[in-house]
Amino acid sequence: MSENLTKNDILEKLTSILTEDFEVDENLITPEARLFEDLDLDSIDAVDLAVRVQQFTQKKIPPENFKQIKTIDDVVNAIEELL
Predict the structure, then answer these.
(1) Do the domain assignments include residue 47?
(2) Number of separate domains in the chain
(3) Does residue 71 sit in helix, strand or coil?
(4) Hey, what long-range contacts does 20-26 have (CB within 8 A, 24 or more apart)?
(5) For burial by CB atoms within 10 Å, which of 24, 44, 60, 70 has the most?
(6) Can you tell me whether residue 72 is helix, strand or coil?
(7) Which residue ranges in the chain fall short of pLDDT 70?
(8) What is the pLDDT of residues 19-35, one digit of tens each?
(9) Could you count the other beta carbons within 10 Å of the beta carbon of residue 62?
(10) Is the pTM above the cut of 0.85?
(11) Domain containing 61: what range?
(12) Is residue 2 part of a domain?
């Protein structure tokens, strides 16, 4: 896993995960998009997303950090912190 990823690289990978694994419309994925309200993810999806992020980064998001994640930008920032 390269640690030289830009926020844009992370957003592209996250967009790929959300469209392929969660069937989210790519047009809905913006930095401000809220995971639950705008992208219609549920708590099980959130756990699955955490697993996918862990696979992508080879690192685990601490549960207390994951609870703070509400938007796409929050996910990107959390991934950036892990790398």
Answers:
(1) yes
(2) 1
(3) strand
(4) 21/48, 21/52, 22/48, 22/49
(5) 24
(6) helix
(7) 1-3
(8) 999 999 999 999 999 99
(9) 12
(10) yes
(11) 7-82
(12) no
Kindly provide the b/e burial profile for residues 19-58, where b requires at least 16 CB atoms within 10 angstroms of the residue's own CB: eeeeebeeeebeeebebeeebebeeebeeebbebbeebbe
CATH classification at residue 15: 1.10.1200.10
Query: What is residue 3's DSSP assignment?
Result: S
Q: What six digits make up the tokens of 47?
A: 């756990």
Tokens linked to 64: 């207390």
Say which amino acid occupies 14: L
**How far apart are the C-alpha atoms of 78 and 66, rounded to whole Å?**
8
State phi, psi for 3 to the nearest 5 degrees: -100, 10
